[in-house]
Structures are given as C-alpha cells and as structure tokens.
Amino acid sequence: MKLLEFEAKEIFNRYGIPIPEGVVINSPDELSGQLNKFSDEVVVKSQVDVGGRGKAGGIIITTKADAVEAARHLFSLPIKGLIPKAILVEEKLPIEHEYYVSITIDRTTRQPMILFAETGGVDIEETARTRPEALRRAGFSPLLPDVPGYLMRRILGTAPKTLGPVINNLYKAFSASDALLAEINPLVTTPKGVFAADAKLIIDDNALIRQGITANRDLTPREREAEENGFSYVELDGSIGVIGNGAGLTMSTLDLIAHYDGKAANFLDVGGGAGRERVMKAVRLVAGMPDVKVIVVNLLGGITRCDEVAKGIIDAGIDQHVITRLAGTNEDEGKALLAENGYQMLETMEAVVKQAVKEAAA
After folding, report:
1. Cα first-last separation, the chain
2. Which helix (DSSP H) or strand (DSSP E) does residue 168 occupy?
3. To which H or E segment does residue 352 belong?
4. 76 C-beta neighbours (distance < 10 Å), count
5. C-alpha 279 chain-centroid distance
6. What is the domain partition of the chain in residue ranges?
7. Taking the C-alpha atoms of 126, 189, 46 and 85 in order, what is their torsion angle to the nearest 10 degrees?
8. CATH label, 21-91, candidates 3.90.230.10, 3.40.1190.10, 3.40.50.150, 3.30.1490.20
9. What is the DSSP track for 240-283?
10. Among 186, 242, 332, 360, whose CB has the most other CB atoms within 10 angstroms?
11. In this prediction, what percent of the chain has a pLDDT beyond 90?
C-alpha cells in the first residue's frame, strides 16, 4: 500500500526526519485561516496515490494571496483519473541542493538496500541509465539497528555529513513501518538545515493490520478493474503498454524498454495459467489507458498455453498495435493464430521491445 505524501511525511517526522512546515486541507475554505503560518511563497500539492503529479499540474508554487485559488483548482483537477480528497500546503524551502535517497529490499540478498544520488528531484531511472556512477548502492543486514558508519561514509561520498542522520532515521522508519520502499526525492539542504521535500512510503500489504492501517486506498478505475481481475498492476506515465506473466519477466520487459529509451505505460502481470478471457481483459485494460500507443505482450507458456493467449489477444479487438513474444506450450499454434489475424509475433523479447519503442516514438 502506497501512502499519500502527507501520510509518509508524518511517519518520517516521527522518526526524526525534518519536513517543511505545512497543513493538510480537505477543502479550499479550510486554508484561509492557516495561511499566517507561512511566509510569502507556498507549495500546493495534490494528494493522490499516483506518480507524475508534477507533470500533470498537481503541484503549484504560488504566493499566499493566490494559495486558496490554487487549492480550489487542484481539488477539481483529476490526475490519472483520481480527484484528490486532500491537499498539502507547505512552505517553499530556500533549497541549496537536491539529493535522492531511498531504501528498499534487494530481493537477491534479501537485505535492505540504500540508493543515494547527489542529484535529486529528477527521474532516478534516467540518472541510473545516463550516469550510473552517480547512483551509489549499499546493502546490509536487516538485523542491524542502524546503517553501519563505514557504509554511510561510502554512500555519502563528498555529500554533506549532515545527511547521514536523516538517512539513518529513514532506515529506522523503513524497518518499523514494514515498508517495501521508503524514498525521499528530493532530500534538500537549505540554510535552515536538511528537509524531506517529498516523501514516498510503500508498506507491505501483508503488514497493514500490524501497522494499524485498515482504510482502503483510493484506486483509479483501471486499478480497481485490475484488482477485481487479480492482476498485479501499476500505472506509469509512458506510451508502451506491458503485459507479462510473472513479476520477474514483466519487470525485465520494463527494464529493457527503459534501456532502449522507451517509456512503459504500466506494469501488468496476468499471473500463471492465464486463459483466453483473462488475457483479453488484460489487453483491453491496458489499451484503455489514454497514452498507450503500442502494447507488448511477453509471456512464457508453462501452465499458460500460448494458443489461449493468442485467442485472448485476438478477442480483445483493440485499436493499438499488439507486438507479441510467446514461448512454450503450444507456441506454434499460438503463432499461427496470431499470424492468421494480422498480429505480429517476434522471436525474442529484445526484438519485441525494440519494435515497440520505435512505434511509440513515431
């Protein structure tokens, strides 16, 4: 479960991470009486459980005089189908430098992994691709109560040592919250000190009861449809739809799209043994995303039959071009069905992704 920004910041602050002065409002009229807390400029942020708020106009820097109107605008602005129920209004920080830091679980070592970059406020995937040396990583035992000092020094490099306590407290918040991801982007230095200018916290769904979280999160219509069909689904902001079976294969497809300078529109894992109807629903769901130009279907047939997958793609009857890579059970039958109906099936994942990136850029 991904928390809203203000919820994540409340948790971070409890663990000693400084956050900007701010208020959360549920209607524009609530803001007028609280503006005296701020100096001249404020940042007004839509609180929705999707990425890409800034690009969608969901973050506005404005003066106190115009803050109420900005909040009124954001309360009526849908972002990826979601209308915010809350708005976060914060002081505008006098930022000197922006950094990136996150803590997640390295599935290979099954240990916490810290990622740190001396350039924050941008897509970390782009930084990792274009300047991999700028992203530093460090893993360590989850049994340790703190980040080891020698690792902290390695992570920070020439960055200010004042970031160290904040990163250590982020690890404490991460551990105590049963989190899958704790991220601050950007983590900023200012004349007043270090602050978490933004916050992301994703909590393991299996730990929600232990964490005392019972309320259902807001879902976009497509996320609700995906949940009802049992799909693992995440909305992104690209133009290449992605359908796979198995989290590893689906993530590998997304990674390869990024490697070839494409942008995925989503992550959708149909799961094992997906039949004709299930594949049809998955294809229609992804095709319903407004920015999707082309769809990649990358499935390995074990208990999943390639001919059933092919029939589901054909049944979907969508307008976008579907480029497919199927391998495994009844592969030849699936390939023949797709060819008969004018669908493109390529031999390798790399070939499929290259073609999809080319078409999305056209």
Report:
1. 36
2. helix 163-176
3. helix 349-361
4. 9
5. 24
6. 21-91, 97-207, 221-361
7. 130
8. 3.30.1490.20
9. EEEEESSHHHHHHHHHHHHHTT--BSEEEE--TT--HHHHHHHH
10. 242
11. 75
User: What residues contact residue 180 under an 8 Å CB cut-off, 6+ apart?
Assistant: 104, 105, 202, 203, 204
User: From CA 219, how far away is CA 221, in angstroms rounded?
Assistant: 6
Q: What secondary structure letter does DSSP report for 132?
A: G
Tokens standing for residue 226: 């995906």
150 part of the active site:
no
Once rounded to an integer, what is the mean pLDDT over residues 169-188? 95
Tokens of 172: 């404490």
Q: Of 7, 90, 183, 223, which is the active-site residue?
A: 183
Give residue 309's identity as a one-letter amino acid code. V
| Count of C-beta atoms within a 10 Å radius of residue 34 | 14
- For the chain, state the CA radius of gyration: 22
Contact 135, 116 (CB under 8 A): yes
Tell me the backbone φ, ψ of residue 61, rounded to 5 degrees: -95, 125
The CATH code of domain 221-361 reads: 3.40.50.261
DSSP state of 28: G
Amino acid at 327: A
Instruction: Pick the catalytic residue from 15, 99, 100, 343.
Output: 100
pTM of the predicted model as reported, rounded to 2 decimal places: 0.67
Q: Distance between alpha carbon 349 and the CA centroid of its chain, in Å?
A: 23
Q: Which tokens in the block code for residue 270?
A: 């149909």
106-124 burial code (b ≥16 CB/10 A, e <16): eeeeeebbbbbbbbbbeeb
In the chain, pLDDT over 70 holds for what percent of residues?
A: 98
In the beta sheet, which residues pair with residue 104? 113, 181
Residue type, 231: F
Q: Which two tokens stand for residue 200?
A: 């992301």
Cis-peptide into 186, omega within 30 deg: yes
Round to whole Å and give the CA distance between 154 and 176.
24
* 98 is annotated as an active-site residue: no
The second-level CATH assignment, the architecture, of 97-207 is 2-Layer Sandwich (3.30)
Decide: helix, strand or coil at residue 77.
coil
